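Q: Exodeoxyribonuclease 7 small subunit, please. Structure only.
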Amino acid sequence: MSDAATPPDRPVDSLSYEEARDELVAIVARLEAGSATLEDSLGLWERGEALAARCQSLLDGAYARIAAKDAGEDDADAGVVGIVPEEGEDER
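A: Structure for Exodeoxyribonuclease 7 small subunit:
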């Protein structure tokens, strides 16, 4: 991730999942390196928390969409079982 692609002052709510994840990975790397001042570390930590929450929110939304689609498909398949006669049954 380049800093130009996702400037740290860009609102977290405007980031895609991939942008938020990439920036979070970069923040973790900076914090693990230990080169930031205490004040900078606190700012990075706060930004990282917001990015993690954004990622989780987007993942929760994706999960809900998949679950809703799965539930809709179950309803669409209702009644299909038993339409095709099994071997040896009369085909009236």
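A: Brief note, in case it's useful. The helical segments are 17-33, 38-77.
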